[in-house]
Specification:
The protein is mainly beta and 51 residues long. It has one domain. It contains one helix and three strands, in the order αβββ. A three-stranded antiparallel sheet has the order 1-2-3, with no helix packed on it. A hairpin with a 5-residue loop joins β2 and β3. The longest helix has 5 residues. It is flat. The N and C termini lie far apart (26 Å).
């Protein structure tokens, strides 16, 4: 998970990347309007179901 996108989205890091092991990582960003945005990277989650 790269937080390089934060500069383009003008968000800032609220909680840096936390690695829980097994490929599971989280981070929390603060948007310009102060909304918190949670990110989760989980390699075990299958992702979107094709339609």
């Amino acid at each position: 998970m790269s937080l390089g996108l934060r500069t383009k989205a003008e968000a800032s890091i609220h909680v840096p990347i936390t690695d829980y092991g097994g490929g599971i990582r989280t981070a929390i960003l603060t948007a310009p309007d102060q909304t918190l945005i949670g990110l989760i990277e989980n390699p075990y989650f299958p992702g979107p179901v094709p339609t």
